Amino acid sequence: MNDRIKIIDKEVLSDNWYTLNKVTFEYTKNDGSVQRQEREAYDRGNGATILLYNKEKGTVVLTKQFRMPTYLNGNKDGFLIEACAGLLEEDNAEDCIRKETEEETGYRIKNVQKVFESYMSPGSVTEILYFFVAEYEDVMKVNDGGGTDEEEDIQVLELSFKEALRMTSNGEIKDAKTIMLLQYAQINSLLA
Ligand SMILES: Nc1nc2c(ncn2[C@@H]2O[C@H](COP(=O)(O)OP(=O)(O)O[C@H]3O[C@H](CO)[C@@H](O)[C@H](O)[C@@H]3O)[C@@H](O)[C@H]2O)c(=O)[nH]1
Ligand SMILES: [Mg+2]
Fold first, then answer.
1. How do residues 78-109 score in pLDDT, each as one tens digit?
2. Which residues have C-beta atoms less than 6 Å from ligand 1?
3. Which atom of ligand 1 is nearest to the CA of 65?
């Protein structure tokens, strides 16, 4: 696909839960010279995320859960407020996010709108994340949420949009996908 890149070797360094590969490749620089380089790339599949919002109430639904990698790196209690998200399985991103929304937040939503897609850590993680927004109403709540996985322990938060935006400024919300979705909602006036 790119004749400036020639993959020489791909070595699996770890495949315990997800896969960490070391890729050796020849890279042709802008000046035409060829360099041999190595990069580690963590492959944990792709994901989808969604902002649920209610115009009339001026609210959004977010989740709160323990995230070990953040606990290892400065997040005091390790809990993170995030937009609902999940890894893609066999299904396409849209079906995946509908299913994930019901499992994690308890809302059975109808129409979802794809807004953009983004690599979240392009220097080290292969994952591309698909971003969605959807309107929700109280009557769509069909269960308590929380996740289906035995180790999942997800708290569902319904916050005013203003409060959620404030939390992105004061550091209470520190998750990229969540900040991106809240700012998308603000820029596009999804809520008053
Ligand atoms: N035992 C074990 N379980 C794991 C490990 N890593 C993840 N899991 C479990 O695998 C499940 C994955 O849950 P999902 O809801 O599908 O994914 P997610 O972790 O919420 O990921 C979403 O958010 C990430 C962070 O923003 C995104 O990177 C990702 O794309 C996705 O959108 C969770 O139950 C989690 O505990 C691991 O190393 N060991
Ligand atoms: Mg999740």
1. 999 999 999 998 779 999 999 999 999 999 99
2. 17, 47, 49, 85-87, 127, 129, 149, 151-152, 177
3. 20
Q: Which CATH class is domain 47-187?
A: alpha beta
- Tens of pLDDT, residues 155-168: 999 999 999 999 99
pLDDT 10s digits, 22-39 = 999 999 999 999 999 999
Question: 70 pLDDT band (50/70/90 cuts)?
Answer: very high
Per DSSP, helices labelled H in 26-131 are 68-71, 93-105
All structural domains of the chain with their residue ranges: 5-43, 47-187
104 in a known ligand binding site: yes
**Rounded Cα–Cα distance for residues 116 and 146 (Å):** 26
Element (H, E) at 177: helix 176-187
Centroid of ligand 1 to alpha carbon of 22 (angstroms) = 22
Joined together, the tokens standing for residue 98 give: 């509908």
Ligand of minimum distance to the alpha carbon of 46? 1
